[in-house]
Design brief:
- The strands form 3 sheets. The protein has a 7-stranded mixed β-sheet with strand order 1-9-8-5-4-2-3, with helices on both faces. Strands 7-6-10 form a 3-stranded antiparallel β-sheet, with no helix packed on it.
- It starts with 5 loop residues before the first helix and ends with a helix.
- Helices cover 42% and strands 14% of the residues.
- Strand 2, helix 4 and strand 3 (97-101) form a beta-alpha-beta unit.
- By secondary structure, it is of the alpha/beta class.
- The longest helix is centred in the N-terminal third of the chain and has 22 residues, at 6-27.
- It folds into 2 domains: 6-102 and 109-250, 3-Layer(aba) Sandwich (Aspartate Aminotransferase, domain 2); 253-369, Alpha-Beta Complex (Aspartate Aminotransferase, domain 1), CATH 3.90.1150.
């Protein structure tokens, strides 16, 4: 049994993927070929925004909007500690300061009741300039964007949606990627919409941000290749990665539906023995991961391993306790919810083509060891 079976999907669309790869090899436009533009237009329409910019990775999809907003030393960006390092890493790379906020224990997303407190505290201290918020759509469920955007407007901050795991999810009828001033997602192979390598995309309705993203993506390009309007990066999405994604987009909506069925089956089989994920009524999760909580997860995971069932922990150590962020001065106890979740959480196999027989085996094993 695999944690995520990419091959099952590949068998469905292999002919189309092969044909698209051969088309790229034939036209030879390996950098910024026509497939990149086609993917950008297709996904902008899917998300419901005016502009999309294909980039080299999910990390660049977060870094580039911060560069477009000219984040640098002295700037504070509010985000969560319970996430993958890329969310906060991009802030540090630009010399900005990550200000962590604890999470909601039910959704694992930023706790909006604590967000405004954190902003007020930074403003009152007067050492940093509050500039933006990066909510994370953790495990596939969008954060509370109505409340987040209202707080951002109140204090003059921009919002960058980290939709690396949320792409395909929905918040009050709107797609993840369209929920903030700008959004970034990832096409890492294991993501709900993944390519066979690295890739990502930014989404926005703001023409000014869009034009800056286009510039940043190609070394700060101005009017032509050797006119540099700003310092940028090499953040381009490879043509081959875009070509591989195009057939995947065609079946993506169906796969999101299949993920709902897998999640529902888990919920029905596990809710009385382990803490299963909570999805708000107005949300649809993309189910990038199916993460559960148990006070003695090591015992349960060991039992599952004996049965040949793979598991993973997202995330065993919150960012505020990582050596990479020791300069921020946080300590154990600062974010109790994040710390508790990190000590109890683990993820079980989740992908659209997880068969009922395998799923029943997983449910049975968890019921046995939980």
């Amino acid at each position: 049994m695999q944690f995520i079976d990419l091959n099952a999907q590949q068998q469905r669309i292999k002919d189309k993927i092969d044909a698209n790869i051969q088309a790229v090899l034939a036209h030879g436009k390996y950098i910024m070929g026509p497939e990149v533009k086609e993917l950008e237009q297709t996904l902008a329409k899917y998300v419901g925004v005016d502009y999309a910019v294909g980039v080299a990775s999910g990390t660049d999809a977060l870094l580039m909007p911060l560069m477009a907003n000219e984040i640098g030393p002295g700037d504070a960006i509010f985000t969560v500690s319970f996430t993958f390092i890329a969310t906060a890493e991009v802030i540090q790379l630009l010399g900005g300061t990550s200000v962590f906020v604890d999470i909601d224990p039910d959704t694992f997303n930023i706790d909006v009741s604590k967000l405004e407190e954190a902003i007020i505290k930074v403003k009152n201290e007067g050492k940093l300039n509050p500039k933006g918020i990066i909510p994370v759509d953790l495990f596939g469920q969008p954060a509370d964007y109505d409340e987040i955007n209202a707080i951002a407007r109140k204090y003059g901050l921009f919002v960058l949606e980290d939709a690396a795991q949320g792409f395909g999810g929905t918040y009050k009828g709107k797609k993840a990627g369209s929920l903030a001033d700008v959004a970034g997602t990832s096409f890492f192979p294991a993501k709900p919409l993944g390519t066979y390598g690295d890739g990502g995309m930014c989404f926005t309705n703001d023409k000014d941000i869009y034009e800056k993203l286009l510039s940043v993506r190609v070394h700060g390009k101005g009017t032509h290749k050797y006119d540099n309007a700003r310092v940028g990066i090499n953040g381009r999405l490879d043509t081959l990665m875009a070509a591989i994604l195009l057939p995947k987009v065609e079946i993506f909506a169906e796969e999101i539906e299949l993920r709902q069925k897998v999640a529902k089956r888990y919920e029905e089989g596990l809710k009385d023995v382990i803490k299963t994920p909570f999805v708000k009524e107005h949300n649809i999760s993309a189910w990038a991961q199916y993460s559960v909580l148990h006070p003695d997860r090591e015992k349960v995971m060991a039992g599952l391993k004996e049965e040949g069932i793979p598991t993973a922990i997202y995330y065993p150590k919150p960012l505020h306790l990582q050596d990479a962020f020791v300069n921020l001065g946080y300590k154990y106890g600062d974010f109790p919810v994040s710390e508790k979740m990190a000590s109890e959480i683990f993820s079980i196999p989740m992908y659209p083509y997880l068969g009922e027989e395998d799923q029943d085996k997983i449910i049975e094993a968890i019921r046995k060891y939980a």
